[in-house]
Hints:
With 282 residues, the chain is an alpha/beta fold. Helix content is 41%, strand content 17%. The relative contact order is 0.14.
Amino acid sequence: MNHRLLTGAGLGFRRELIPALKDGGHELINFFEVAPENWVGMGGRSTRDLRYFTERHAFVCHGLSLSLGGPGALDEVFLRRIKAFMAEHGIGLYTEHLSWCTDSGHLYELLPIPLSEDAVRWTAARIRQVQDILGCRIGIENVSYYVAPPGAEMSEATFISAVVSEADCLFHLDVNNIYVNSRNFGFDALDFLHALPLERTCYVHVAGHYVEPDGLLIDTHGAAVIDPVWSLLAAAYRRIGGAVPTCLERDFNIPDLAQLQVEVGQIADLQSQACGAEMQVA
C-alpha cells in the first residue's frame, strides 16, 4: 500500500470511535494516529476495521514501549513487526517517546532519561538502530514527567537537541507536555519551546491534562485542550510553520466525535493562520 500524504490536523484512532467514524461527517480530520502496540498481531474484526480506514486515510504510528533510553536490549523482533505493519497499512512515519519504560519488564510509565553525555550517546545509538531496522528516520517526542530528570550536565532542551543531532533523527513536538512540565517544575514554557530543535519537527501533539487538588498537572489526555496550550501551539507554528501535521490526543473520557472535531478544527484554524502569515511575509 502506498503512503498517503500526511498533512493538516489529525486525531488519535480509538476503537470506540469507529462506528461514528464509519457514519462519516469527519471531514475536518486529515489523518489518524495509532499505537502499534494496540494493533500489531490483531486479526479478525479489529484488522478489518483498521484496514477500512488505512485504505482511505493517512495514518501515523506513535510507539509506547521501545524504551529508547532504557538499559535493556531493543526488541528487534517487535521492531520488525512494526515495519511490516507500517508497510501493510501504508504508514510512512513512526514516532516514539524520548524516555525509558523497561527494566526486567515493562514498567508502564514513561521515565525521564539522565541529562548526561553518556545518555546522549547511548540513546542516539539506539535510535539509529531503530532507524536501521525500520528503514526510515523516526521522530522522538519530548515527554512529560513527575520526577525531574536525573543528572545536571546539560539542560533538558540541550539534551533533546544533542540526541536529535547525534542520532540524525526527527523531532516530535508535544506542546502539552511542555506546559505540564513547566507548571510542575516552574520554568518558562515559551523559553523551553524556543530552545528545542524545532527545525527538525516532523509531527506535533496537542492534548488536555488533569489538575490535581494540590495543583500538580497530570498528562492524562483526558480533557479538552486549555487556552495556554493552544497559545503554545500557535507560538510553535510561528517557528515551524503551519504545515506540520498535528494530532489531537484524547485517550480517556472520550467525548462524541462532534466535540472532538471542534478541537481538531481549532488545530486547523491555527495552521491556516500560520500559513497565511507565512504567505504575507513571502
